[in-house]
Design brief:
about 160 residues, 3-stranded mixed sheet, alpha+beta, elongated
Length: about 160
């Protein structure tokens, strides 16, 4: 890492030297391009070196190890996964012409246990597909058994 800092300092000094001493015109643009290229190469080589190193595991970092030990990170992960799935399903319901809501239940390992999908018909016009067809399409898209989706059709006067 110290070598990287030294490279950047030297290249910055070279850049300043080019700005001060090289006259305007094609020569200055060529010098600026050359120094810029060297800076990019220095950044790229450092990034490649960094990518080749082993990154520390979460358990080796004290703050993350404590969070993992309490199970908070797992709960947050599962909640985020459920929220993403819920948002996706509601969006697909809207695209099909319904007002939709969903409740997602996940297992401890993050797999879908079951989903309750509630659909209400929009007042603007007929939906593009039936609720059953939407549930079947979602099951195929999410690659889950159709019986894991519990479809509830709300009445058209429902909020």
């Amino acid at each position: 890492m110290n070598g990287f800092v030294v490279q950047l300092v030297v290249l910055s000094a070279l850049w300043a030297f080019c700005e001060m001493l090289v006259p305007e015109g094609k020569i200055r643009r060529m010098a600026q391009f050359t120094v810029s290229l060297m800076i990019m190469l220095a950044l790229l080589s450092s990034a490649i070196q960094l990518a080749g190193r082993e990154l520390p595991q979460a358990e080796s970092l004290p703050v993350l190890a404590e969070t993992s030990a309490r199970g908070d990170s797992r709960r947050i992960y599962l909640q985020a996964r459920a929220n993403q799935l819920r948002s996706y399903v509601i969006g697909q319901g809207r695209r099909a012409g319904y007002r939709a809501d969903a409740t997602v239940y996940l297992t401890g390992n993050g797999a879908l246990e079951r989903m309750e999908l509630t659909l209400w018909k929009q007042k603007e016009g007929p939906p593009l597909m039936t609720g059953t067809a939407l549930a079947e399409t979602l099951a195929r898209t999410l690659e889950i058994p159709p019986e894991k989706i519990c479809l509830v059709m709300g009445d058209s006067s429902g909020g």
